[in-house]
Specification:
This protein is α/β, with parallel strands linked by helices. The protein has 11 helices and 16 strands. The structure holds 2-amino-3-ketobutyric acid.
């Protein structure tokens, strides 16, 4: 990667990723972009307003900055998608189609995140393999499976350098997530510091894969910098660094805040989504093909989250 365009850069991943990429590749080589509906559009010199469903505008920005890599993060998440599946399909699939076509025309590499949402109730729940049954029951999942296949197709048919991972729930102190099922695992830290209490919309006993954002950011860089001759798979690699349910997360927080309490007001929509997803992914292929090596486990993440959020 030398010159990089990030779409959806004001979202949860983009905020951390842009900062890290500027450190590594230089300020002039990271172009951030987002639709501009958010109140806090960043005051960055290389920020572009971009609706990824506008093919011409997307192409013009990629061409103007002569980027060699597109990190396509703009997407609607799982819980919002269940409220408005048509909107999700429009943004996630038309945005992806544009990213693929632009990558084909301009010869850029393309990173597209998939998700644990690409799996469904008939997928093996524990030690979920890289290649397995993918019959998701959410529109988010449908778009992720279609997206993985589209990216593979463009690689096989046109030689576009597409790469992707299946992200688990991502936890960050910099930006809040925007309407996913795993969001409880971020909100809990904010409420732990503010109220020493959290009411979870996900039920006790519901395990999901998770990862701390610094590891997710390194994961994107490592995959995009990986020697292509080592990649047997491309779209998309299972990645995860921990798997827990709300009770295990509570116990981890209690090691730092002993009086923290947790109760439940379960949201049936997000609970059903969570139950349809795996408990724990098998990440062997990511480790072997490009050296996936996350640094944070649950307790290390909890200590860092509470410290950094406390400073904020
Ligand atoms: C969501 O919950 O929708 C996302 C995801 C796991 O892809 N965080």
């Amino acid at each position: 990667m030398k010159k990089i365009l990030i779409t959806g850069s004001t979202g949860q991943i983009g905020a951390d990723l842009a900062e890290r990429l500027r450190e590594q590749y230089g300020e002039d080589n990271v172009i951030t972009s987002a639709r501009g509906v958010s109140a806090d559009i960043p005051n960055e010199p290389l920020f572009e307003r971009l609706d990824v469903t506008d093919a011409q505008a997307f192409y013009d920005i990629a061409k103007k900055h002569q980027v060699d890599t597109i990190l396509h993060l703009a997407a609607v998440l799982s819980a919002v998608g269940e409220k408005d599946p048509q909107l999700l399909w429009h943004i996630n699939m038309n945005g992806l189609q544009n990213a693929l076509e632009i990558s084909r025309e301009l010869g850029t590499a393309l990173f597209v995140p998939s998700s644990i949402g690409a799996f469904g109730p008939s997928t093996p729940k524990v030690g979920t393999p890289q290649v397995t049954i993918q019959r998701p029951t959410t529109m988010y999942g449908v778009s992720k499976v279609a997206g993985e296949l589209m990216c593979d197709y463009y690689y096989l048919k046109y030689g576009v350098d597409t790469r992707g991972v299946r992200f688990p729930g991502l936890i960050s102190y910099k930006a809040l997530p925007g309407g996913g099922t795993t969001d409880y695992a971020v909100h809990i830290y904010y409420d732990a510091l503010k109220k020493n209490h959290y009411t979870s919309f996900i039920a006790a006993g519901t395990k999901m894969d998770m990862m701390y954002m610094p590891d997710a950011v390194e994961c994107i860089i490592d995959l995009m910098e990986a020697d292509p001759s080592r990649l047997i798979d491309r779209n998309a690699f299972n990645v995860s660094s921990m798997s827990f349910d709300p009770e295990e997360l509570k116990e981890s927080i209690r090691k730092v805040l002993p009086d923290f309490t947790l109760d439940y007001d379960v949201d049936p929509v997000r609970q059903a989504i969570a139950e349809s997803w795996p408990d724990s992914l098998d990440c062997t292929e990511a480790r072997e093909q490009w050296g996936f090596n996350p640094q944070y486990d649950l307790d290390a993440m909890t200590v860092d989250m509470l410290e950094k959020l406390g400073q904020k």
